[in-house]
Amino acid sequence: MASKEHKGICSDRVRGSSAVNVDLLECPICHDLLWIPITCQRCETSFCSACINRWVAANPGKCPNRCKIYIERKCPSFIVKLLGQLQIACYYQSKGCEQVIPYEALDKHESECDYQPQQCSGCRSEVLKKDFDNHTSGCAAIELTCQDCKLVYKRVDAATTHTENICLREQTKENIHQIRQLTLQLHEMRLLLPSITKAKITFNDLPMADQKSNFIPDMYRGLEWNKIYYTQRLHLKKNLLNNVHVPSLTATNSRHVAWFTEKAAISAENVNGIFTFVSLTVYGAWNDGMQLSITGHRNSILVSKYTTAVLWCKPQLVLLNWQDIDKVILQPLRDTRHPENRATIGKCNRISHLLDLPDEVLLMICRYLQPVDVLRAFFKSTSDRLHRLILGYRTNLVLSTLSYAEFRFVVDELLPYLETPQLALSNSKIPCLVEHFLSLCHQLPLNNLRKLTLKSCTNISSSLVVWLSNQSKLEDLSVYNGDLEVVARKSRPTLLNRSRGFG
User: Fold this and answer.
1) Residue 94 DSSP one-character state
2) Where is the SIAH-type domain (predicted)?
3) CB–CB of 283/311 below 8 Å?
């Protein structure tokens, strides 16, 4: 016989079956006991099914007993009955297994036997199945993968290759990589903002949708829309079936939401038309972790592909900037239904947008960036949360480390929009920059400024005093030069007198 392991059963493994002549139960080809036997219809000789199949494959149509033609038939029942009376010692008896098993249960036992050898993936030695778990749990050569930093290392090298510091360092590298990717995405988005604003589709100009939802017109905003609906944002939940895949396209402050349940498409209006697909904001209306496949095509040829996880009720920006395409296909893939679709999604390890990060991670990003880069990236954000996080950067401008280009950026791009009531300026290395900075403020409206703090300033010119006197709402001026401090509050005459006295 040959079991699943294709190991023959020799007759000396038969135990306690003296009433059965095992010689009559041998296969004429392998000379071991028959295993899953079949019989030649002409000569009535039985063979192991594996043995006769190999024979016929090498000798088509021929029987080992030289019959004119081999015709297969079912094994006679008396042979099957005799085989069923046999008691067989386990193949792994040489490894220590002492069990004797009925013929019909032999294959199952040998596939599960605790004495069969298995190879350790670390040291490559053979270990009995019953000892395998204990061996691998302590084998020094086994490779381990850290679930936190994904570092692969051998157990024996854990003390040197995967210490806690190394693990944290690897996690930091991965976090920094993700941060850089998100920062690049944000930078690209800011560069594209003017063109996006001009061509942004919000679905707000569509006729008011009823509660049953409407198809987006075949031709809308110069594009052809296929299998995409729209409905009022407030009616989205009650209008959709609970068991469908529903990605939704949304826009801030739009009363309408576009959605689709199957493969949908957006195409150029004309046969030879092309367009640039910059970005879309998408979320899952009923599902968590849905995979959304987005493909760009030109002349029916796939030219771009992007897949992202769409989260329930959590809009995310997908920045693509695909140029010169004539068709975009949106295909929802697998997903998980959100429990009851009530609570907002909880902890999620996938980061798809900068605002998905917690405050402490955003602050860590800021620490890795130069202050002017923090302002460049976040100052004009529409997020109140980001504004609160960078308040310290907005009110404490350190000019000594800035290049001239960065200095001009602060003056030209940031100061005109500064609405904070307090501002602190510091310059310990290049005092002239502070004066230059403040001299430019003559041209800028700082109507909300109540408190001004100047640090590491060696002089204040008369022109600055004149400018300060014109700031009707300025109530508090503090000037620091080393250990010397001059403070003026509330009364404008006092303010002017203190400023002149210091200059």
Assistant:
1) G
2) 85-141
3) yes
CATH code for 11-112? Answer: 3.30.40.10
Backbone angles phi, psi at 211, to 5 degrees: -75, -10
- The Cα–Cα gap between 292 and 177 comes to 24
Q: Dihedral of the CA atoms 457, 458, 462, 463 (nearest 10)? A: -50
Determine contact, residues 283/310, Cβ cutoff 8 Å.
yes
Which residue, 316, 307, 317, 388, is CA-closest to 348? 316
DSSP state, residue 138:
H
Q: Of 295, 279, 281, whose CA–CA distance to 331 is shortest?
A: 295
Task: Write down the pLDDT at residue 326.
Answer: 93
pLDDT of residue 288: 58
pLDDT for 457: 62
Give the tokens for residue 138. Answer: 């302590």
Closest-CA residue to 143 (of 161, 121, 160): 121
Domain residue ranges in the chain: 11-112, 200-355, 358-502
What DSSP line would sit under 431-464, residue for residue?
Answer: HHHHHHHHHHGGGS--TT--EEEEES-S---HHH
How many Cβ atoms sit within 10 Å of the Cβ of residue 319? 16
Q: What is the pLDDT of residue 327?
A: 94
How buried is residue 331: exposed, middle or buried, by Cβ count under 10 Å (0-12/13-18/19+)?
A: middle
Q: Which CATH architecture has domain 200-355?
A: Sandwich (2.60)
Q: Which residues partner with 257 through β-bridges? A: 231
Listed as ranges, residues in the chain with pLDDT below 50 are: 1-6, 240-245, 336-351, 483-503
The residue written with tokens 């000789």 in the block is 45
CA-closest candidate to residue 220, choices 247, 258, 185, 164: 258
Q: What are phi and psi of 273, to 5 degrees?
A: -75, 150
- Determine phi and psi for 287, rounding to 5 degrees: -135, 155
Which residue shows structure tokens 């996690």? Answer: 171
Contact 140, 156 (CB under 8 A): yes
Cβ within 8 Å of residue 347, ≥6 positions away:
none
The pTM assigned to this predicted structure is 0.36
